[in-house]
Design a protein that fits this description.
single chain, mainly alpha, elongated
């Protein structure tokens, strides 16, 4: 059994006592996925610093935007997988907040909408800061779900 499978089994066995409110929502953000969202911004910032053209304010805004988009996506995945019945007892991995019954589907949907709205508003800040168009265009595509 893999470590992830063992962890899922452990969580199912101990699911009788739900985690705290903070642990539920922290888990729902799926912190393990955040490096995949933040790494491109960090690499770009490092490259900009290497050539002496780094703007740490813009980098911070882009990091926040990338993190919010990733968290919103994770909330959406939690909600939609539950709604279509994809999160079953046979699923390997950590429990999902909605599937475990820790968060009602409508609450997760509202949280997803709120995080995506915050990312959109933060994207306006990125635009106002003057981040180059191609970077903002890529973010807009991630919010809009495609081209």
């Amino acid at each position: 059994m893999t470590a992830r499978g063992h962890r899922a089994q452990f969580l199912r066995v101990n699911a009788a006592k739900p985690p705290t409110f903070l642990k539920i929502w922290l888990s729902a953000t799926r912190p393990r996925t955040l490096p995949a969202a933040l790494a491109p911004v960090l690499v770009g910032t490092a490259l900009a610093a290497h050539v002496g053209r780094v703007d740490f304010g813009a980098a911070a805004l882009c990091l926040l935007f990338a993190g919010l988009i990733q968290i919103g996506t994770n909330f959406a995945n939690d909600y939609f997988d539950y709604m279509k019945g994809a999160d079953t007892e046979t699923r390997v991995g950590p429990l999902r907040a909605v599937a475990a019954g820790w968060v009602r589907p409508e609450v997760m949907r509202r949280a997803m909408s709120a995080v995506c709205a915050a990312a959109s508003m933060e994207g306006v800040g990125v635009d106002a800061w003057g981040v180059p168009g191609p970077m903002l265009n890529g973010g807009a595509r991630s919010e809009g779900g495609g081209e």
